[in-house]
Amino acid sequence: MASIVSYNVGRITSPRGATFGTGIDEGVVCAESADSSSEGGSAATMFALGIPGGAATAVILGALILHGWVPGPKMVFDNYDVINTVLWGNVLQALMLVPTGLAFCYFAEKTLRVPTRTLVPVLFAMVVFGVYAIRGEIADVWVMIGFGFLAFLLDRRDYPLVNVVLGLLLGPLFEAEVIRAVTLFSGRWERVLDRPVAIGLFLLLVGILALPRFLKWLSGLRARAA
């Protein structure tokens, strides 16, 4: 999730955002840097607050509870050795990522030489098999094909597919959290913005949404001035 959000923000703010998706270095850095850094943040919230930030930390949370450790503020003091082990593990895996990534890139580069007429049918067969294997329903395959055709039309119209993916992933989570917040505040949703953190996040969201139009207006202003 972090990599998708970072990629989308980078595409919006970068002067070369139109070239994202073609293998440009900036797009790769946006996605991979966010993906690597998000794990540390997820682990921090899990240990300090007991809130997993993703699927991986949710599994770790379950393992810790099975061992009798309760993640939360007290764990940082009572089981500092566990926290220290995880921190050094993150440092070690970051160092190991460099040689491992370079070695993987050498072999991954070979896949780029596979002809498209061979690669596409193989990938399509794997996707169909994976979708059908989840529930064993042929209707899921037709839904997948329909959404694939929709993605093709959106791509032909230069509509950013990342936004669609974000909407599908974050939509249900956003609705559930909004309902929970409104319930906690007895139906007065405006009270959600009474908290400084909520106001800051809301302003940040508005700024990210308004940034593309502002940059477009600014570039047009510079073009007229030149």
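That was protein one. Protein two is written in the same sequence-then-structure order:
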Amino acid sequence: MLWVILWAVLGLGFGALAYALVYRLTRKQCKPAILACALLFAGMMIFTQSPTVVFISLFAFILLTISLIDWYTQEIPDGLLLVAIAIGAVWVVLGNITEIFPHAPGFLDAGLGILAGAVPLLAIDRLVLVLAKKDGFGYGDVKLMATAGLFLGWSNIFAAFIFAFIAGGIYAACLLLTGRARRGEYIAFGPFLCGGIIAALWFGQAFWNLLT
């Protein structure tokens, strides 16, 4: 319990950093981000309780920051994705050449995860472009899910997609039913992808075990 509290306090510090980054790029003040990051860090410690928590907590911090920036601007900064890729690459390499990070995906699993994250969104984007003559997903979303595949591996990236599309679909349906959005209007999907990724980090394997 002590480690959870200490990790949550660390999360407050990273939450303040997330707040500062979001404000710098969007000029929007989102103070709940500070508490949200602390809760994410605490949750990662509860679910992981291993050295892996360092890497996935940093990834969760980046996901939180990306989701807020995308919510306000419908853009995902490449710089944050590059930082996430660097963190994920170090984690995968160390996890495969040492025994310190047993939860890291193997090299093949991580590579397939990158493909499984990017290809479905690219395929949907091309299909929507052909049928509706407009973009379906931004390339920021594609790069986000490719990066997530590095952390999740190929099986859990599909769990992230399922969680994200369910949450995003419910939100879009509510907007349409309440008249707050019109059919064909764009919404920021990055926050739902980020939420799906975090859910898959926590519950991905349990989700597949439940289905099988």
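The CA atoms of residues 15 and 36 lie 7 Å apart. Keep this in mind for the problem set.
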